Amino acid sequence: MNPFLNVFAVSSLLGLSAFQTSPTPSAAAPKTVRVAQGEVGRWAGNCRRCSLEKRAWPAVNGTCYYPIDMEMKAGSYTISRRTTGGKLETAQLIVTEKPCRPEDFPDFPKKEYINVSPENQKRAAREAAEVKPLIGYQTRVRPAVFDLPIGKPANPLPKGEGNFGACRTFNGQARDRHTGQDYPLAESKSVLSVANGRVVLAANQFYSGNAVYIDHGNGLISEYFHLKSFSVKPNQTVEKGQEIGRVGQTGRVTGPHLHFGVRWHGACINPGFLLIDPADLPEVK
Predict the structure, then answer these.
(1) Which of 9, 54, 202, 212 is the most exposed place for a label (fewest CB within 10 A)?
(2) H helices within 44-139, ranges in order?
(3) Does the keyword Hydrolase apply (predicted)?
């Protein structure tokens, strides 16, 4: 009997094909990470440079961080990293929507912040124009002089009021979303720099009151608003934990507290995510 037919017959009895081949291995599933608006994702391990769509920046101590602006459109984005060995890797970033919490001030006492005079409108516009290039995305950034988690802006630091990104109304009039986290601290309480850095602005502003902005390198800017007073000046170098001012109630406020905010590579994010162990941040897997 033809040996080929014997093979075919045996294979048929076993329910196999004489021409069956090993299955083709499927391509590895793409790496992904899900990050909510206003939060931060990470890609750990031997990173040198990171990118999100058309923006790029250096890694921080070997880890790529991806800050997501509170108003970034929900959807899928491409992120990448260049390893210290020169390898380029990509992954998918899924940005999920985080609805803003409504926050209303029905009887706001400082009427000049409700019906803003033309003079103060011009002042606020000038101040916004001055701040915009300081907190926006930069193609070139100073080297990072911080690591995560950053320090606390006060010691001890009470629980925040959970109003980052809140959709605010004052006496029924809608205003911009809240860009920081408010901490209920008593007037004159010491305010601390959360990391080493350089003061880029310290001034009295119409809405923010006495305000300090500090550049910590790698595009990270910390903001401290409504201070009673500040004890630093532009271009001054500060250290982590150094007093930079005192809690107050200047600007558009209802009482004493600390507004603490951060901008990272131009993204407005919840500063609370930089105060926790970075291992607890969403990770590319």
Answers:
(1) 54
(2) 118-135
(3) yes
pTM metric for this prediction: 0.89
Query: Could you tell me the residue range of the domain that residue 92 belongs to?
Result: 32-96
| Gap between the Cα atoms of 136 and 215, Å rounded | 12
Q: What tokens were used for 88?
A: 């380029």
Contact 114, 54 (CB under 8 A): no
* Beta carbons of 198 and 220 less than 8 angstroms apart: no
Q: Are residues 193 and 233 in the same domain?
A: yes
Instruction: State mean pLDDT over 195-215.
Output: 98
Type of residue found at 236: Q
pLDDT at position 233 over 50 = yes
Find, among 98, 95, 65, the residue nearest to 265 by Cα: 65
Taking CA atoms, 73 is separated from 34, 68, 210, in Å, by 13, 10, 32
Give the tokens for residue 185.
Answer: 């601290």
The residue with tokens 């630091």 is 157
Q: What is the pLDDT of residues 34-91, one digit of tens each?
A: 999 999 999 999 999 999 999 999 999 999 999 999 999 999 999 999 999 999 999 9
Six-digit token string for 263: 């901008």
143 lies in the same domain as 80: no
Kindly state the average pLDDT of the residues 237-254.
98
Are 270 and 235 part of one and the same domain? yes
Does the residue 10 lie in any domain?
A: no
Which tokens hold the place of 190?
A: 């010491």
Query: Per DSSP, what are the bridge partners of residue 215?
Result: 198, 221
- 205: domain CATH number is 2.70.70.10
* Contact between residue 215 and residue 133 where contact means Cβ atoms under 8 Å apart: no
Q: What is the CATH number of the domain that holds 69?
A: 2.60.40.1930
Instruction: Please check whether residue 7 lies inside any domain of the structure.
Output: no
Do 212 and 106 lie in one domain? The reply is yes
pLDDT mean over 132-150: 97
